[in-house]
Amino acid sequence: MAFVVSLLLLGCVGTGDGVPIPPSVEEGAAPQNTDEVVALLEEKCAGCHFGSAAPKGLSLEPGQALGHLIEVSSVEAPELLRIEPNRSERSYFVVKLAATDPRRVGGRMPLIGKKLTGKQLRVLKRWIDAGARVDWLASETDLGSTDDLGAR
Asked: Which of 132, 104, 111, 107 lies closest to 38, judged by CA?
């Protein structure tokens, strides 16, 4: 009888989907710097989101990226910030990149080119969940600069 109960309990465990895996265990753990984050933004976003005519006013050019992304209300969903540090699930940036999310207004980003892979999206989400730390954006390839941080 104990064997049958054990099998029933094991059947209730499920596949493990949705169970958080510590970043130190999961492949592609949180970046130690923003090289990977900056590379993704440059590859997937900056081609369109650049200059004074950037869509929705989201320019990712040097000196402006941070001021346009972090703790700024989304144009399409003003109740959400573009990036809410430590809260990727409440960041409209993630909503726009995710395969499905009922909060998204308009098309899934990027509109042109290949969509982000699951691994790429996890990299960005981990960066946001780790605080979207500004000091991580201090490399030579930085899309923004510390000059645009103001009084953060």
From this structure: 132
8 Å CB contact between 75 and 105: no
Angle at the Cα of 88 (from 27 to 77), degrees rounded to 5? 145
- Mapped onto helix, strand or coil, the DSSP state of residue 148 is helix
What is the pTM for the complete model shown?
0.67
Cβ atoms of 79 and 90 within 8 Å: the answer is no
Q: Which amino acid is at 146?
A: T
pLDDT in tens, 36-61: 888 898 899 999 999 889 999 999 88
Question: Among the residues of 21-117, which ranges form H helices?
Answer: 35-44, 65-69, 92-97
Residue 121 CA to residue 125 CA, distance in Å, equals 6
By three-state DSSP, how is residue 59 classified?
coil
